[in-house]
Every structure is written in C-alpha cells, then in structure tokens.
Design brief:
Number of helices: 7
Distance between the termini: 31 Å
Largest sheet: 5 strands, mixed
Helix content: 40-55%
Oligomer: single chain
Amino acid sequence: MLTKEDIIRYLKILDNRLKEKDLKGEILIFGGSAMVLLFNARPSTEDIDAIFKPKDKIYEIAKEISKEYKLSENWLNDSVKGFIESSEFEQKVLYRFDNLAVYVPEPEYLLAMKCMSLRIGAESSDIEDIKTIIKYLKLKKPEDVFKIIEKYYPENKILPKTYYFIKEIFNS
C-alpha cells in the first residue's frame, strides 16, 4: 500500500530519474491516489492510476523504481485510460517538481469517473470515495450527482447499479 508520503517520495524519485535523462514528464492522477493526495480521504492506496507522458520513458523508469524499491510492477499504471470518456475537464497542478508536473482532474470529474467505475464489495473504497467527493462538492440530491456524471459520460452508459447506489446514498 502507498501512503501519501510514499506517493510523493516515488514521484520525486521519478522526477530525479527524468532529470538524469534530461526529460520532462507529466502525470495526471486519478483513483485512489487522487483520493489520498487531494482529499486526504484515506491513508493509502494500492497503486497510482494515471495517464502520463512520455509514456514509454515513464514506464521504463517506473519499472526500475519498482525493482529498486520492491514495489509492485503496477505501482504506476495507466489502466484508468479505459474509464476516460472525455478530455473536457479541468486539471489542477498538484505538484511541480523540476522535471515532472503532477496534475489531478477537477473533483466533479473524479466523482463522475468513480461513479462510472463503481465497484461494490468489501475490498473496494469506491463507496467511501464517492461519499467523500459528494460531501466535498456539497451536493444535496441524486440529481446533482447525475447531472455531473452526464456532463462527462453519455447517459446510456450509466449502469443501473450506479443509479441505485447514488439514490441510496441520499436516502440513508
């Protein structure tokens, strides 16, 4: 598990490795790592879900870091790209190191993405993450959440479980 301190530490190491190779990089962080870094919503996450560039070089450096620090090979991955429907969202600079800029999407987009990728189960943090963002955005009713989701995703792609879950949050 990666704590906030771990995430920052490994991002700084990545930054130093980019600097050694005279490369500039950008990372846009989503998922649990965004929840840890942006909202302090939980103490840790399994990995850093992100999109980044230069992709091949950052993957190469991340692999070196995983071996050197005994991290999972997927400690930094771009599997989140399957949930990115739109690039029409604002990004905020979270950290700007010498050779690496780290961004997070606007909270509304994080909420929409969390709702679309909703996993329900004992091992999932999605439910608490969604509740945290709803509270942060001061949303008062399910329609407020659906309006945000539909800003980024077509209505016909929203699964019934998402509708039921969002309605249940506001009824409890």
